[in-house]
């Protein structure tokens, strides 16, 4: 059984969440596009610094000084030969070598003093490195590489996580290095060890492995640069001081590069190959100076006579893709080197965009950063300038400007300890002129200013805040205790502590902390109270420096609790011990977030008020919005885009892909932020509701404020969901409710895959994330139920801590689920029925949050309990509840258009109804007794439903199952409208509709539907259309209400007309099928055109009947159309001639005359009642003429009058027509022969007429009319013509006439 899911009414919420998450991702993208160091510095030189005079604004401060223990001083005083000091950042130890002894001291705890005294020779160099993988046991986390005058060895180091005590392991890995005088040791992160010495210029590698090989030892010394020509020359050939050797080795693990700096200020860059190295670039100091001259950066501070290179610092790829390294001169200048590629084939192979394959073929000085004068800090102490009452912007006199050439300066005298740390933090040490010790010059980029330059579209430049800090004693080493790979401290300050540095001198360890914008703002607020300008001035200057958005983001950083972590890092000495200052700090940060955030406005540079419609794209949101988005983005960015779930390699074990303690820390910060925004919403412009929009005289301002409200509301909504989402994933990871792996592994595999692809951001803000979350909640609840535990505990926690993942409706569903589980085990039928009924009531109340999957699970449970009727009721209720406005039905009624937002809810409801149909089928398949009872219950529910869309879908389902006829038995108010609505698109439903009407004695509607069917575009044969018309004609004779009779008559008139035309079309179709003149292809083409829709009668005649010479069909067309023109006689004449020709060429078993007679008889019978197509006088005349012209011995005498009289034409009519022919004597009846032929036919006609009249058994009404006088007169006329004719035919004719005359006189 599933947990509740997403309601379709929540779509608006996900639009808001998408808007808010997009703002967060935009802020994250903006942070990720912070300009590269190479773009910031550009080409050229700079020598200006911001030198704060107020201590709180300085980029660094000394947090504490830890004195060296007396025991170390005692060892130091016992020095017999050689001593060195330094720091190991990885284990936070200070070290000192005294001849052959090594001492380590945990300076952070000021205890754990340890010594290693097992060496025979004086230690010359020492380095702590990480070992190569799989070489040593897991306990060895580090290696001490110790170089003496004679050998170099590896000493394994492990550290106790509780006591922080060190343990040493003898690795038995040792190489001879006599004669090298090792002075430099460096190692890569993967454990490769490189070293060099003062006695030669070679670079060596300490190669080691776990086991000896056939051709290799466990460890060895490899000379990586032995081919150098200088190494081949005898040592006596060098004059003193001419020997070049390596003073520093520096490694860039991000690019797999190694740099060496020699005592002659030359830089060599090597690429680290899998085995060995390959030289890429050699860059001498004089080449650098030549490049500096091209940058117009000539200065005495670069004079090679007095200045040398003392340090090289690789710039990793995560800090800059363009700048590869920085070299530092003894005068404190920083020379930034950009890597480049040559056109050589080798270097074209590597992908320069890939940091690990970006091996440079050239290094060029692209920017020179000159230092300030040592007197600067004092020289400008009292100076007031444009940067503010507490800042000094220094352009030094020792720069390359022409006006400054020759002016006396006091340059720095930097040593080899000068260095840089990410992100661009510079430390230089020079002898102090005021005390017995060194002076620290420290500079840090002003990221706020740089970001402000970028966001405002101004030219980028390197902005640095710098300071001088006296150091007691002489500096021996410097390390960063918490190194970071974050190159943008605007981002890192929200998730990581401030960088802390340890500087070792011969008297102690100085802990130096870097102030980032977050700490600087705290300082500004703290010191502002003691200044006459006040806090307002200090904070305003901070906002002006970094911009409104960044200023607001920093204020929110203080509000959400980051001040506490900073305070812990910086110590009480910085903030003081009074706790009352913290609430004041928060209140001040809140105040300036609200007041200094600026206003939202419409960008007039892009918006034309007279042409453009106000749109969000024209609105520039305030710094409050952008600052809030940046604050949230920076707090969550470390997990926002990460998958929620990971699977261990090679195992089917799922793990939460985040540290829950870090998630809780972020959640705490976000909660503080949310509470502040929620409480202050009425004071923050744009965050208050619509009531605060009134009163604007300018509609543009009102629109801009509405856009601000919309954006801020979205961010706060996302903020709330992130807080609840963190609670949700922590709950899943809580062992109280089962292991995280057990929960995830229980869900369906597709959901598991979706879960592994789903990021935290998507889980918190997307609909897809909520679907996965509901599946996880479902699994969690089911596990609780399966274990027999109540779900009250887990549901209460879900509702309290993550309400958006578990609402009040969700709790109702959980309760309903629990009732169903109890119903399974209930033995009493009444108890089971009660539990089922109660669960249904709870489901009804929470129906709006149901998903389809949840519904399926609920239905499955009800079916397992035999509660089919309850399942159907729940389905129908859910479908109606999630579409209260019935938009799905309107979508269906509109024809289901594509890309319509209503389609989603329509599909959902259809899917619900399909569950009903599955239940219906299941009920039908049950045993008879059980099926009968369940079927009645289900049918009663279906019939009582008032959901028209359901009824429509139900009827569709009936049809799909081949049960169309059963629709006629349904007594529902929706069946008629269903049939009427769908009859236009479905032939079967249209046929069903007229039957529905006929069954309910709605004969007029039935006839109308049949007529429409006959005329429709459905693929119906002509025969079927004629049937429809015939049925419609039959309904015309049925009893109908008198009010409908007039309409019925009108319909019948149309039916008869169309039926006549359809009959003609059918005759034509038959004729074409039987026409031997046409090929099969021609027949198929014509048949396909005719065996379908009823055509226009003119089209039938002009396109088919007339061109194909179908005479009888043409006559039918004339009959139907009422045509009575000359074409009718011509068509009869053509029929006679056509029949003659066919009989002449085709043997039919009858004579030609018989064939013609048969056709005439048939046509006369068919058309004699219609005068327009059967002009009797003309037709008989045509036949008689044909008979005379084609007379032969086989022709039967009088066949023409016999043909017509046998077809129903009266003897009298035929006599009149023939007699008129005789009287008129028109062609061809002018000759005696023709008249004789005509008299013979007349004689034959009169004989049959007379015989019929005198025939017995006929009544007076059936006896034909016989005009005795007229006939006798005509006989006399014929006899007179034959008086002088002596031919046999004439004599025979006279005889017959005389006999006929006698018979008439006697019998008639």
TrEMBL record:
GO terms for biological process: protein import into nucleus; protein localization to nuclear inner membrane; RNA export from nucleus; transcription-dependent tethering of RNA polymerase II gene DNA at nuclear periphery. InterPro entries: Nucleoporin_Nup133/Nup155_C (IPR007187), Nucleoporin_Nup133/Nup155_N (IPR014908), Nucleoporin_Nup155 (IPR004870), Nucleoporin_Nup155_C_1 (IPR042533), Nucleoporin_Nup155_C_2 (IPR042537), Nucleoporin_Nup155_C_3 (IPR042538). Residues 622-1259 form the Nucleoporin Nup133/Nup155-like C-terminal domain. It holds the Pfam family Nucleoporin_C. Keywords: Nucleus, Transport. Residues 58-511 form the Nucleoporin Nup133/Nup155-like N-terminal domain. GO terms for molecular function: structural constituent of nuclear pore. It comes from the Eukaryota. One of its GO terms (cellular component) is nuclear pore inner ring. Gene3D superfamilies: 1.20.58.1780, Nucleoporin, helical C-terminal domain (1.20.120.1880), Nucleoporin, helical domain, central subdomain (1.25.40.440), Nucleoporin, helical domain, N-terminal subdomain (1.25.40.450). It is found in: Nucleus. Its main location: nucleus. Belongs to the non-repetitive/WGA-negative nucleoporin family. This is Nucleoporin Nup157/170. It comes from Schizosaccharomyces japonicus (strain yFS275 / FY16936) (Fission yeast). The lineage of its organism: Eukaryota, Fungi, Dikarya, Ascomycota, Taphrinomycotina. The gene is nup155.
């Amino acid at each position: 059984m599933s947990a509740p899911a997403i309601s379709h009414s929540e779509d608006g919420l996900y639009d808001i969440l998408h808007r808010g998450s997009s703002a967060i991702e935009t802020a994250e993208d903006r942070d990720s596009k912070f300009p590269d160091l190479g773009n910031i510095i550009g080409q050229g030189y700079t020598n200006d610094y911001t030198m704060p005079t107020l201590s709180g604004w300085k980029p660094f401060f000394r947090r504490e000084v830890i004195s060296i223990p007396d025991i170390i001083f005692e060892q130091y005083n016992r020095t017999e030969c050689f001593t060195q000091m330094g720091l190991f950042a990885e284990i936070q130890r200070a070290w000192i070598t005294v001849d052959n002894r090594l001492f380590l001291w945990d300076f952070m705890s000021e205890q754990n003093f340890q010594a290693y005294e097992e060496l025979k020779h004086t230690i010359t160099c020492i380095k702590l490195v990480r070992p190569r993988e799989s070489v040593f046991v897991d306990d060895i986390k580090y290696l001490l590489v110790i170089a003496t005058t004679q050998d170099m060895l590896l000493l394994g180091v492990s550290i106790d996580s509780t006591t922080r005590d060190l343990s040493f392991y003898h690795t038995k890995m040792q190489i001879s290095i006599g004669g090298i005088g090792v002075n430099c040791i460096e190692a890569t992160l993967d454990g490769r060890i490189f070293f060099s010495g003062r006695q030669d210029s070679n670079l060596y590698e300490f190669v080691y492995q776990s086991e000896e090989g056939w051709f290799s030892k466990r460890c060895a010394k490899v000379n990586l640069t032995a081919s150098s020509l200088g190494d081949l020359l005898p040592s006596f050939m060098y004059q003193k001081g001419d020997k070049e050797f390596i003073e520093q080795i520096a490694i860039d693990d991000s690019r797999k590069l190694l740099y060496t700096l020699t005592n002659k200020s030359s830089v060599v860059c090597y690429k680290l190959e899998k085995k060995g190295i390959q030289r890429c670039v050699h860059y001498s100091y004089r080449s650098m100076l030549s490049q500096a001259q091209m940058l117009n950066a000539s200065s005495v501070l670069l004079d090679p006579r007095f200045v040398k290179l003392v340090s090289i610092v690789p710039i990793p790829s995560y800090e800059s893709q363009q700048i590869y390294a920085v070299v530092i001169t003894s005068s404190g200048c920083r020379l930034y080197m950009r890597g480049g590629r040559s056109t050589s084939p080798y270097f074209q192979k590597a992908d320069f965009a890939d940091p690990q394959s970006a091996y440079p073929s050239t290094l060029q000085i692209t920017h020179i950063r000159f230092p300030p004068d040592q007197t600067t800090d004092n020289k400008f102490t009292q100076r007031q300038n444009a940067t503010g009452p507490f800042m000094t912007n220094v352009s030094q006199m020792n720069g390359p400007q022409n006006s400054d050439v020759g002016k006396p300066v006091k340059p720095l005298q930097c040593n080899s300890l000068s260095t840089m740390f990410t992100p661009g933090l510079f430390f230089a040490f020079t002898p102090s002129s005021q005390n017995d010790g060194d002076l620290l010059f420290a500079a840090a980029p002003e990221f706020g200013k740089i970001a402000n330059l970028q966001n405002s579209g101004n030219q980028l430049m390197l902005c640095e805040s710098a300071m001088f800090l006296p150091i007691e004693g002489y500096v021996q080493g410097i390390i960063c205790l918490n190194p970071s790979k974050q190159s943008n401290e605007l981002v890192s300050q929200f998730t990581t502590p401030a960088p802390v540095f340890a500087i070792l001198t011969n008297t102690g360890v100085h802990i130096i902390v870097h102030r980032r914008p977050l700490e600087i703002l705290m300082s500004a607020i703290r010191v502002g109270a003691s200044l006459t300008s006040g806090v307002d001035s200090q904070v305003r200057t901070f906002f002006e420096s970094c911009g409104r958005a960044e200023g607001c983001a920093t204020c929110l950083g203080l509000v959400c609790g980051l001040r506490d972590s900073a305070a812990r890092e910086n110590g009480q000495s910085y903030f003081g011990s009074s706790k009352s200052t913290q609430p004041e700090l928060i209140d001040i940060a809140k105040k300036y977030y609200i007041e200094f955030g600026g206003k939202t406005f419409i960008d007039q540079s892009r918006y034309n008020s007279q042409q453009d419609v106000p749109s969000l794209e024209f609105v520039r949101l305030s710094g409050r919005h952008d600052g809030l988005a940046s604050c949230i983005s920076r707090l969550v960015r470390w997990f926002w885009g990460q998958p929620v779930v990971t699977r261990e390699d090679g195992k089917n074990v799922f793990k939460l892909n985040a540290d829950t303690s870090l998630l809780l820390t972020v959640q705490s910060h976000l909660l503080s932020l949310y509470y502040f925004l929620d409480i202050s919403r009425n004071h923050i412009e744009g965050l208050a509701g619509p009531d605060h929009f009134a009163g604007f005289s300018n509609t543009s301002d009102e629109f801009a404020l509405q856009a601000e409200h919309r954006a801020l509301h979205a961010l706060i909504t996302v903020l709330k969901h992130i807080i609840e989402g963190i609670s949700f994933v922590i709950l899943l990871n809580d062992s109280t409710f089962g292991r995280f792996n057990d929960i995830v592994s229980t869900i369906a595999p597709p959901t598991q895959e979706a879960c592994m692809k789903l990021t935290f951001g998507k889980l918190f803000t997307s609909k897809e994330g909520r679907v996965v979350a509901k599946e996880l909640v479902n699994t969690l609840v089911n596990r609780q139920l399966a274990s027999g535990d109540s779900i009250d505990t887990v549901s209460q926690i879900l509702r309290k801590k993550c309400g958006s993942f578990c609402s009040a409706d969700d709790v109702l569903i959980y309760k309903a689920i629990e009732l169903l589980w109890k119903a399974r085990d209930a033995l009493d039928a009444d108890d089971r029925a009660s539990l089922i009924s109660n669960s249904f009531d709870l489901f009804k109340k929470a129906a709006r949050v149901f998903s389809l999957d949840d519904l399926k699970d609920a239905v499955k449970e009800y079916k397992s309990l035999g509660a089919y009727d309850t399942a159907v009721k729940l389905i129908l209720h859910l479908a109606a509840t999630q579409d209260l406005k019935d938009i799905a039905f309107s979508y269906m009624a509109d024809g289901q258009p594509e890309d319509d937002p209503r389609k989603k809810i329509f599909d959902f409801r259809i899917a619900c109804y399909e569950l009903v149909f599955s239940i219906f089928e299941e009920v039908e398949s049950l045993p008879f007794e059980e099926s009968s009872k369940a079927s009645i219950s289900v049918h009663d529910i279906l019939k009582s439903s008032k959901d028209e869309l359901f009824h429509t879908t139900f009827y569709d389902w009936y049809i799909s199952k081949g049960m169309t006829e059963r629709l006629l038995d349904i007594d529902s108010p929706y069946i008629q409208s269903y049939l009427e609505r769908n009859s236009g698109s479905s032939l079967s439903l249209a046929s069903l509709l007229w039957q529905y009407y006929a069954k309910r004695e709605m004969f007029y509607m039935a006839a109308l539907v049949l007529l429409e069917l006959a005329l429709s575009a459905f693929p119906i044969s002509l025969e079927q259309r004629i049937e429809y018309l015939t049925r419609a004609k039959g309904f015309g004779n049925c009893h109908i209400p008198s009010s409908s009779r007039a309409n019925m008559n009108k319909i019948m008139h149309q039916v008869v007309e169309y039926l006549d035309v359809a009959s003609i079309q059918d005759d034509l179709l038959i004729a074409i099928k039987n026409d031997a003149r046409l090929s099969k292809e021609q027949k198929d083409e014509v048949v396909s055109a005719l065996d379908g829709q009823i055509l226009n009668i003119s089209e039938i005649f002009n396109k088919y009947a007339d061109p194909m010479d179908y005479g009888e069909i043409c006559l039918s067309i004339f009959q139907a159309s009422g045509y009575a023109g000359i074409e009718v006689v011509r068509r009869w004449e053509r029929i006679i001639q056509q029949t003659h020709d066919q009989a002449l060429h085709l043997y039919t078993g009858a004579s030609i005359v018989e064939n013609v007679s048969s056709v005439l008889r048939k046509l006369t019978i068919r058309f004699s009642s219609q005068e327009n197509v059967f002009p009797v006088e003309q037709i008989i005349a045509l036949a008689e003429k044909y008979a005379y012209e084609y007379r032969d011995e086989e022709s039967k005498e009088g066949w023409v009058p016999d043909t017509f009289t046998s077809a129903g034409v009266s003897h009298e009519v035929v006599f009149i027509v023939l007699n008129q022919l005789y009287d008129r004597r028109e062609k061809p009846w002018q000759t005696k022969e023709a008249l004789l032929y005509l008299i013979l036919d007349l004689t034959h006609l009169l004989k049959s007429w007379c015989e019929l009249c005198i025939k017995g058994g006929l009544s007076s009404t059936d006896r034909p009319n016989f005009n005795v006088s007229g006939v006798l007169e005509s006989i006399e006329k014929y006899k007179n013509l034959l008086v002088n004719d002596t031919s046999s035919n004439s004599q025979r004719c006279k005889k017959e006439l005389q006999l006929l005359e006698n018979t008439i006189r006697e019998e008639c």
